[in-house]
Amino acid sequence: MVDFDSDLRPLLGDRTVKALAAAFDIRTVEEALRHYPRRYFQRGQLTDFGGLSVGEDVTVLAEIRRVSSRKGSARGRKPVHLTEVTIGDSTGRGTLLATFFNQIWREQELKVGARGLFAGKVNSFRGTLQLVHPDYTLLPRTLIDADEVTEFVSELIPVYPATSKMPSWRVAAAIELVLAAVDDLPDPLSPDIRREFGLVDFAEAMRGIHAPRDQGQVAAAQHRLRWEEAFVLQAELMRRRAARRATSAVPRTPTSAGLVAALDRHLPFELTAGQVAVSEEIATDMARTHPMLRLLQGDVGSGKTVVALRSMLATVDAGAQAALLAPTEVLAAQHYATVLDLLGPLARRGQIMGDDRGTAVVLLTGSMGARDRRQALVQVASGEAGIVIGTHALMSHTVDFADLGLVVVDEQHRFGVEQRAALQAKADGDSHPHTLVMTATPIPRTIAMTVFGDLDVSTLIERPASRSATMTHVVPAVARPDFLARAWQRCREEVGAGHQVYIVCPRITEEDPSGQTSPPGYPPTAVVDLVEYLQAGPLTGLRIATMHGKLTPAEKEAAMRAFALGPQDPDGVDVLVSTTVIEVGVDVPGATVMIIIDADRFGVSSLHQLRGRVGRGSAGGLCLLVTSASPGSAAEKRLRAVAATDDGFELSEIDLRNRREGDVLGASQSGRVNSLRFLSVLDDGDLIEHARAAAEALLEADPELLDHPELAAALDRLAASEAGDYLEKT
Ligand code: ADP
Ligand code: MG
């Protein structure tokens, strides 16, 4: 019996099997069937040549209009026999010249009035578009009666992704043979589901895709396949979630009069309703006997840190340890400072000024000195340190926890799953720590379901009331030098009012100072040069510090600390000129202005993250996007879009729409079996929701998929495919 995994060899000839493998990496029945046509030609309808361009590989349906042969010779070369076949298009005006050298016999085969598919690379010869030695296949012309003519003319011809060795019609011929065997293939979608959602079965879908009689069949087949993609993916994610639920974790239920209560008393603000609700969701998850895996998404400045901190303290109150993983040293150091600041003596248990009802908080980063590191490791291993904050150094195998109860990963988009898994593996034996993943890159719900479908998701929607709006403006510095001058003036005003200013540059130093091509009047775009320029001119007299990846950790820390002190402090810094190292998480509430130089070099989400660094306190924020892009250009329009909304969800959708679907999911474009071929995570939201609900119901009723072996097999195939690899990596 033919199965999805069956070899193509018994079905196809040796030569074809080899050619399919070489051209498209197609080896199994499923891979052949999933090699879907790119489009369809209708026999009666010729291609319109208007859309063709030089250099393009094309397959066209055309009619032969003229055939002629002549002798030609290029200077100094042997004479050649040239056969020129003019083929015409649907408009009757467009023509292509199909040219053959020394193949007189083509004249016998290519007759005026015949129609056929021609494939090749378009080039231009003396102003005429031509195909040199195109591959072609002619359509049969022996038609008997009128009905047959109509049927013949309306028949659809699939056009496959093709190569010069495997033109579309050879692919079609091979797939036709495979197709004859598919009636037996097990359908991953059960009859119940097909009935409920009005979907054709697998065999019919395959006929509808590869050998359709009309567009209606194509549409029904595509709909069914789109549905199948969504359903199989969701079922796989559900299965992973179920597998996680089958593993064990120690429930962590905090005592009521512990550090959480102490933190709440010390907080300089009221928690928002959203923060309270999410904290409760986390507490409920952590009281379970299976590990939590929750994604907390919230726009920049929505107050995720305090939610994380409360959960970490709850873990300590339950007698265990919590780890906070930050993507950069700057951020780890900042979190450490925030925790010490908020907990005061309660974070210094065991120290002179410490409170023994508290716990020890340690920072663990890669750049720490050996002695400090050893001391920290001892505190972690003994359980003395209730809270451990660090960078990826936390995942090193030399770090041994006494009893790790909770892992918080801040800014998840910077971490791969391997790292998450490495940390999870740090818990003892078979039990896993609870995990909270936080991201400030909000993603639309259907994408979250598709990419993070095996996670539970919490969303912080509102921003704390104390946060004020940030106004964003585009500064076209070349067209309007007065705007730029005004920007520097605003910096001075804000510093005068006691606030700090960030200025972000795309690079540290000018790669090639002699090759400086900045337009006149435009500021330098590298940190080092800009600082010089500002000190000498627009911001003379202000205290400016720099921040970038080449500084030592101590230098970075000193710069951040001075910047946090601000203009009112004698040791403070007024302006921080930085690269994007401050993009995520950095929280200096007194900073009110963010100036981004060459803003068009940054992505939409980076700009949004950067601007999230200001407007954190009670004073409103101002973000200026400085650009040399001319007004009306695509780059400038993108900046205007960022300026127009402060809603991260809206922006991420704009951002995603500008990218290819494949990039959204990170799927490879290599043309192999890729699990999402028809499904669009951006456009098929409703369908994904339905498929998810159906998958959830099915797995709830039959968790082992004992009654659904076809689906189980499809999930195994998915897990084994590249898409599966990708899911593992998110
Ligand atoms: P993000 O979600 O981007 O990580 P943070 O956790 O850094 O945001 O919070 C942004 C700022 O808002 C911080 O200065 C924080 O102290 C403050 N904040 C958090 N929660 C509240 C609240 N409920 N009320 C007022 N300010 C808050
Ligand atoms: Mg944060």
List its salient traits.
730 residues; alpha/beta; OB fold (Dihydrolipoamide Acetyltransferase, E2P); Rossmann fold; 4 domains; 25 helices; binds adenosine-5'-diphosphate
What is the structure about, briefly put?
With 730 residues, the chain is an alpha/beta fold. The chain is built from 25 helices and 21 strands. It is globular.
Structure description:
The protein is an alpha/beta fold. It folds into 4 domains: 39-159, Beta Barrel (OB fold (Dihydrolipoamide Acetyltransferase, E2P)); 187-231 and 702-730, no CATH class; 259-460, 3-Layer(aba) Sandwich (Rossmann fold); 470-658, P-loop containing nucleotide triphosphate hydrolases (Rossmann fold, 3-Layer(aba) Sandwich). The chain has 25 helices and 21 strands. The strands form 4 sheets. A 7-stranded parallel sheet has the order 11-12-10-13-14-9-15, with helices on both faces. It has a 6-stranded parallel sheet with strand order 16-21-20-17-19-18, with helices on both faces. The longest helix has 32 residues, at 215-246. The chain is globular, with a radius of gyration of 32 Å. The structure holds adenosine-5'-diphosphate (ADP) and magnesium ion. Magnesium ion binds next to helix 11.
Number of strands: 21
Mean pLDDT: 85
Strand line-up of the largest beta sheet: 11-12-10-13-14-9-15
Q: What kind of assembly state do the chains in view correspond to? A: single chain
CATH superfamily of the largest domain: P-loop containing nucleotide triphosphate hydrolases
Q: Main beta sheet, described?
A: 7 strands, parallel
Backbone structural class: alpha/beta
Topology-level CATH name of the largest domain: Rossmann fold
Backbone shape: globular
Distance between the termini: 37 Å
| Unreliable spans | 414-419, 660-673, 723-730
